[in-house]
């Protein structure tokens, strides 16, 4: 059995240094559902922004602002492609 290594974006130190936020670029299709469902966005602050990195369909990926991201994991839960992962420290 072989496993595939995915390319990704890692943002360390979200949730005031208590978590790392990861996005697998090879899985992200740039749908933006994570941006819509992010509870920080509901408060008027943009936690997730479009990245300069491109994903599966050459569409922009997302990445968090480490100062505003609380590491709640909502983005990871709603991602239809499991492209986002939050690792608590």
Q: How do you describe this structure in short?
A:
With 89 residues, the protein is α+β, with helices and mostly antiparallel strands.
What key attributes describe this structure?
single chain; 89 residues; alpha+beta; three-stranded antiparallel sheet; two-stranded antiparallel sheet
Describe the structure.
This protein is of the alpha+beta class and 89 residues long. The chain is built from 4 helices and 5 strands, in the order βαβααββαβ. The protein has helices at 14-17, 33-37, 39-42, 74-78; strands at 8-13, 19-24, 48-54, 60-64, 84-88. The protein has a 3-stranded antiparallel β-sheet with strand order 1-2-5. A hairpin with a 5-residue loop joins β3 and β4 (60-64). The radius of gyration is 12 Å and the shape is globular. The model has no long low-confidence stretch (mean pLDDT 89).
SSE diagram, text form:
Layout: E1 8-13, H1 14-17, E2 19-24, H2 33-37, H3 39-42, E3 48-54, E4 60-64, H4 74-78, E5 84-88
Overall pLDDT: 89
Rg, rounded, reads: 12 Å
Provide the succession of SSEs: EHEHHEEHE
- So what's the overall shape? globular
> Could you say which structural class the secondary elements and strand pairing correspond to?
alpha+beta
Strand portion, in percent? 25-35%
Tally of helical runs: 4
Report on the biggest sheet: 3 strands, antiparallel
Residue ranges: pLDDT <50 for 5 or more in a row?
A: none
Could you give the order of strands across the largest sheet?
1-2-5
Give the end-to-end Cα distance, rounded to a whole number of Å.
Answer: 30 Å
Helical percentage: 10-25%
Number of strands: 5
């Amino acid at each position: 059995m072989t496993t595939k290594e995915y390319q990704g974006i890692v943002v360390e130190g979200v949730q005031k240094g208590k978590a790392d936020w990861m996005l697998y670029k090879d899985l992200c299709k740039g749908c933006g559902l994570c941006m819509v469902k992010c509870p920080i966005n509901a408060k008027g602050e943009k936690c997730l922004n479009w990245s300069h990195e491109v994903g599966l369909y050459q569409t922009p990926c997302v990445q968090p602002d480490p100062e505003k991201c609380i590491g709640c994991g909502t983005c990871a839960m709603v991602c239809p492609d499991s492209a986002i992962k939050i690792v608590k420290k």
